[in-house]
Amino acid sequence: MVGEPVFLTKNGRGRYAIVDMEEYEKTKAVIKLMGELSKGEQSAKEEGWIDIADVEKMLGIANG
Known about the structure:
Blueprint: E1 6-10, E2 13-18, H1 21-47, H2 52-59
Antiparallel strand pairs: 1-2
């Protein structure tokens, strides 16, 4: 099937997966995002959470 990964085995066990480049790039982006979210969560646990109103102000999207 088009767009489906192809799996290669060695000695009957999964060894490699061949995926579409677009899917590969999406997967890399998700992994990077999850890493950044993890860093942010760790920072919040160590330094405290920021109020949503403060985040909106920092992003310039404050309501009212």
